[in-house]
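Exercise 7. Given the components listed, write out the predicted structure of the assembled complex. Treat all entries as one system.
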Amino acid sequence: MKKPLILVVNDDGIKAKGIRHLIKIMNDFGDVIVVAPNKPQSAMSHAISIEKVLRCDKVNINNGPQQEYSCNGTPADCVKLALNKILLRKPDLIVSGINHGSNSSINVIYSGTVGAAIEGALVGIPAIAFSLLDYSSDANFDESEYYIRKIVTNIIANQFENNICLNVNFPKSIKNKKLKGVKICRQANANWEEEFDERIDPKGNKYYWLTGNFVNYDKKTDTDEWALSNHYVSVVPINFDLTDYSSLNSLNLLLDE
Amino acid sequence: MKKPLILVVNDDGIKAKGIRHLIKIMNDFGDVIVVAPNKPQSAMSHAISIEKVLRCDKVNINNGPQQEYSCNGTPADCVKLALNKILLRKPDLIVSGINHGSNSSINVIYSGTVGAAIEGALVGIPAIAFSLLDYSSDANFDESEYYIRKIVTNIIANQFENNICLNVNFPKSIKNKKLKGVKICRQANANWEEEFDERIDPKGNKYYWLTGNFVNYDKKTDTDEWALSNHYVSVVPINFDLTDYSSLNSLNLLLDE
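Answer.
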């Protein structure tokens, strides 16, 4: 059997600890090509660069069998460039992350990590976004490794089923408390309640920092938020058809002549 | 009855012809507050600014009863700032656009115009994204006006039903050919086939421009692409729960112990 070709991407930038950890794991599964942003691109969602020039340089951040490219674009740009200009054939798998911080529930729509995975799924490549609920720069990615290996092994064993796009989140590591396992779940109905931090600059002009509190309105037990707060790994299958099928009929009544 | 409060936003920037046209129309429906980007923010998707400072200045672009604010952030930033710092109460409606160019089918995930509308829907405000399939700076927005008025009138008459988020696209105006009406539809399965334009800069380094062809793989007649190519206005109700419910069960088999 031919070795799988695996594209690794992220949104925290090519030097982030999370992607370095992910590359090391993926080297055990196949031929790894890394195409990742040259600087942090968090919360860039599915943005692409249509007004600026893209550059993509071969780099060598850590030793290893992987090939690495550093790109000045967004995570979605990285995937588009990789698929069209860097890789010699369509990859068998795209993995994105490991993100420093949660991409559960509504974060999915803001996340550059997930945006990159969706970009792969769009063209029929199995794609997985991995995120750890720990923002600290010395976050411990060791415990997530076991589950990353398990999920990737399962996806590969299923012959890279097309159209699979997974949003995987890991709870923060807690000493002496093991992760309980994997839960397949739906995106919780949760959201950020913003509180802009309003300040005055030295010239007397107002400016704002976006801050906020994450609030989970969804008390059911089949959600990613429930899984994570109960110390499970959450796996949400995601799709990119945003049509709200449930309201097609009521709208027909609303808008037709 | 109290006058509706309407927030107007876009991604082409506060001076774009499309938003100026939309503001003029919306002034007939209620009290209009404009919070829009100070420069083009096309293809910014649902990106938000978490690493940079936001500014929002009162401006006066055109005379009229509207109040206007120019913001240095993304379309989604504009909505968050408007809701939290500019508006004195929750608006009754958010309208985004009129975008210069299509936001039909897969463009929905890249679009800043739609990103802004979703940001409103997320907090329970009815939101509509309007786009015209004409990229030219002198695009003719006159014909879309009739349908914008009709759709907004219908939404208002339905007492601002919550959780409604519409992606509305107008075909390009064709002389002596009237729009045929409104079609409620689903997002077509269509995508961009990228072709990066590879060039060499004066220093001998490679760079790329993102280009591509839009290809519709979906030949059914219930899609937005069908409606638009048959000279109808397409209206797709959209939602922000990306869970692929259809694959929850098969994944349970795939990943469980």
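Discussion: The longest helix of chain B spans residues 142-157. Residues 5-187+220-240 of chain B form a domain with the Stationary-phase Survival Protein Sure Homolog; Chain: A, fold (CATH 3.40.1210.10).
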